[in-house]
Amino acid sequence: MMRLAVVVGAGLLAASPASADPTSRRDLEAAVARIIAHQDALSRLWPGFWPEGQPFIIHHPETGAVFAGDAAPEGPEFRPGALPGAVSSYELDYPSGVVNTVALKYDGDVADLETLFHEQFHDHQTAAFRWLGEGSDEFVDVSLIPDLAGFAAAAEIERRILAEALNARRPDDRRRLAARYLTLRHHRLSTLDPAVATAEAYREWSEGTAEYVGVSGGAIVAGRPDRARARIVEALRRDLNDAPGGFSINWFRGRAYGVGAALAWLLDDLGVDWRADIETGAHLDARLAQALGEGAAQSDPVALLRRYGHHRLRQEMAGKLARAPLAPSSREEFLAGAPLRLAIHVAVPPVRASELEMSFHAAGMTPLPDQVLALTDVSYLTVRIGDVNLWISDRSVLTEMVGTGARQIVLLSSFVGLEPLAAAAGGEPAPVDLDLGWFRLKARAATVEVLENEIRLHLVP
Fold first, then answer.
1. Cα dist. 43→75, 124, 422 in Å?
2. What local confidence, expressed as pLDDT, does residue 21 receive?
């Protein structure tokens, strides 16, 4: 399975603000020291996560990098200069000489370290988590939801109740509000196609647990135990309609960070052993219902919706959704947004599929059917496997899986700069090393096709 690291806009994974001054060596070393000092507590966040000696690197391109854990067995080691090959805000399996090394670009904010733990937990999930059934495709068919505004209003009320629950001082109040949340969630989903509930549960299972580990790890190294709760409440109160990318990305993936983390927090608050169940595919909401037990107070969902102003909120949501930018509804519609295209296909043998790594940061992401993502205003997109190293920036890109391989289709207004590729069309496979700033590619073997409006590259890792 391809490893995919995603940062979409500012509303999903919270990025720290840029520092006024470049992060100093002292800052980098202090961050590493805090992580090492708390590695036992970090390892207790989830069995198997952040083991003793976890290799990691904290770096800043204008300062240098500090190698730590098993990546520097003699103790933390500072190396001046930019970290070679580190183009993303984080790198999973950075080639440090030690497997499973995670590298993080650090700007001096605790939120950066939350990203370190969040992304490393995704790496842990690839080995430890097993999802059962459907729902793991990023695409959600919103046509299965007849009343989008009503759905969003009800889901927003649920988020507010979860925030109430996390802020409640008395355990009994937290239990009562958690039961209220589950009542409304069941009511909202009860009349919809089961695929909607499954898609929702999957994103909470994946992104929600990673967010919980991320904010919890950040709280540990900051020495502020209550920070995790506050960060989750902050996510629950974020206006999802402010984020670009369309309904499915905002109200499924975007919502899942805060909701999933809140469900995990409540399970820990109840003192139950829940992590093993989640690893084997249990849904967080179902596990919370089990933990609360049959005696948990139930309420009339219709009366609750009226109490929380669902009718008024639905009208508000309808207005916001009507004003939201239109997201592409199909692959063809997105590709029609520019006259020319550059298509890069990386063919990956099935036995090497797990080696394929891709990461990106984009202002907007719209999931489309068949594992297709439409990315707008890409600040960076990288694809790596073997001798293939691809970088794309400042463009809109359609990314899709083709068998075990991956294809990136870049929307262009002209082919300026790509003349060397066009000149190689029809030839034998040959190495390519091209740097246009917005497009950088190194590969040991590439073949080129030129069509009327498209240049196609076929790469072999």
1. 19, 12, 52
2. 59
